[in-house]
Structures are given as structure tokens and as C-alpha cells.
Amino acid sequence: MPDRYAVIGHPIAHSKSPLIHGLFAQATGQDMRYEAIDGGAEAGGFGRALAAFRAAGGRGVNVTLPFKLEALAAAGEASDDARLAGAANALRFDGDRVQACNFDGIGLARDIEVNLGLPLAGRRVLLLGAGGAARGALLPLARAGARRIAIANRTAAKAASLARELAPHLPGSCILSGGALADLPAGETFDLVLNATSASLSAGTPAVPPGAFAPGALAYDMVYGQGLTPFLQLAQAAGATRVADGAGMLVEQAAEAFAWWRGMRPDTRQVLSMLQSRS
Ligand code: NAP
Q1: In the structure, what pLDDT confidence band is assigned to residue 202 with cuts at 50, 70 and 90?
Q2: Among 103, 197, 222, which is best to mutate for testing ligand 1, by the most ligand atoms less than 8 A from CB?
Q3: Is 105 a pocket residue for ligand 1 (Cβ < 6 Å)?
């Protein structure tokens, strides 16, 4: 009997996780099955789906929107990344124990540093958005050595409160601020501009001032499969020489979860290029 894993979300039909984990399992020779489960829109749907999957012998799950907060609440133990993000994107079942991790931020940092070749040490980062994705990215970016992180959000108060909450957990060398785009000091430039808003899903973009992109900056949109989003177009027009979407982040966080479950980290290069060639 193959070991069973799944991703739970709503909606879930679009999820690439079954494809990615299927390819990882094939490449590493792991005897496992990975399926997509719709937690539904009704209250309690996630809890019911999780309980049913565990009762059927499931070994672990990935969790995606809108259940990442509930996933953390369902776990008895959580990694620092999951606790500080206030959300989990992976659970592991070990008898009665349910452990939670959040690999989104680590996946992002790995994609930027390894796949895109931009070491984060000493970089100045403009992080757009203050939702779950931005929150999960903060600690891994700072841990990787970013020396300045400016969080800018449409609702400025959310960015300010996120900065206040997480500042004590960041290395002292990282200068952190939170507010609106309009609050950025005039003339400040960034090596990495990260779109962690969901604006691209509705063909919108935060209005980043062209002067915010340092020469040779990398513009990164966390959404994937949307082609050259309005944010990436804006970045190119402002002179960003490198642009990327979140496909690499997706594959890298999946590889982290796979390693946590199965004790071996799969190679991500082929899976990522296959995913990119399909979009
Ligand atoms: P979320 O918690 O709902 O937060 C959404 C954020 O986007 C908020 O800061 C919101 O600002 C901002 N926003 C929404 N529409 C906007 C607009 N038109 N203009 C400016 N800002 C806008 O969502 P999330 O979980 O953080 O996800 C954010 C994005 O990251 C999504 O597109 C998601 O697909 C992507 N993501 C990708 C991966 C990956 O593996 N590649 C993983 C996780 C997330 P307000 O606070 O003002 O409402």
C-alpha cells in the first residue's frame, strides 16, 4: 500500500501540488500517493476533510488557501516559521501527533538564491503586501541576510503592525519598516521588489514608483501561471532587468515538505522547467 499524502484547499482543482509531488515520488522511487481534497466552503470543512484523511491512513498534507490558519490551529506542535507566520502549509501525522510547518518563505528564499542566483545577504527588499504570504516571507528573507526590508501595503496599518510584531524576531542587522508605498523615503531603491499581494489575480498591481527599482533589480511576483503580470510589466518598464513569477517558490516549498515527510530532498530543476514550459 503506498503512503498517502494530499493537499487540502478550496477551490483545489487548479492545484499543481499533485503533479509536483507525483514527479518527486517518481524521481526518488518513493511508494506514495498524493491527491487533491476540496475542503469546501462550509465552516468546519477543513477539519472534517483532515479527520477523514487521517482516519484513512494519511501520513501528511499540504494546506493551501483558505485553510492555512486552521491548519496551524489543528496541530499540537509547530515550527518557528509556522508560529511566526501564524499559518501552516504542511502537516505531518505521527500516531496521535500532528506537527505543522510553513515552507512558503523558505521556498521563496531558495528560489531567489538558488534558482534565480540572487544571494539575499546585504540586499534591500521591498515587500509588497501584508497578508499571509508576506508574513511568511519576512523571517526567511531576514534570516538569509537581507539588510533592509520595507513592507508596503494598500492598508498601511496592516504593514505597520506586521513590522512591529515581527521586528523582535528578526536579526538586529535588518532594518525593517511597514507602511504605505507613499511612506517610502524619496530616492530609496531596492535590489529585490517582491509582489506578495494578490493584485495580479485580478489583473491589478500596486503602483510601485519606477525609482524604487535599483539598477539590475529583480522583480518577483508570487503568483504563478499568469504570464507577465501587470506588476512584472510595470517592473520591466521601470528598468528591472530580471523578472520572475512564483512557480519556483511553489516547487521549492513542495520539495521542503517532501523532504520533511520522506527524509530525502528531491531535485527541483526538472520539475520547475516542466512546470514553466506548461504555463
Ligand atoms: P492574503 O492573505 O489574502 O493577502 C492579500 C494581500 O494583497 C493583502 O496585503 C492585500 O492588501 C493585498 N491586495 C489585494 N488586492 C490588492 C490590490 N488590488 N492592490 C494592492 N494590494 C492588494 O493573500 P496571501 O496568502 O498573502 O497571498 C498573496 C499572493 O501570494 C497570492 O497571489 C497567492 O497566490 C501568492 N502565493 C504564492 C505562493 C507560491 O507558492 N508561489 C504561496 C503563497 C501565496 P490589503 O491588506 O490592503 O487588503
Answers
A1: very high
A2: 197
A3: no
pLDDT of 24 over the 90 cut: yes
Pairing of strands 190-195, 124-128: parallel
Q: In angstroms, what is the span from residue 215 Cα to ligand 1's centroid?
A: 26
> Residue 152 and residue 156: Cα distance in Å, rounded?
7
Question: Would the pLDDT of 266 be above 90?
Answer: yes
The mean pLDDT value of the chain amounts to 96
pLDDT given for residue 276 in this prediction: 87
Q: Atom 31, ligand 1: which residue's CA is nearest?
A: 198
Residue labelled with grid coordinates 513569477: 245
Q: Where are the alpha helices (DSSP H) in the chain?
A: 17-28, 45-55, 68-73, 80-85, 104-110, 132-143, 156-166, 230-237, 247-262, 269-278
196 lines ligand 1 (CB under 6 A): yes
Q: Report pLDDT for 278.
A: 78
Amino acid letter, residue 88: A
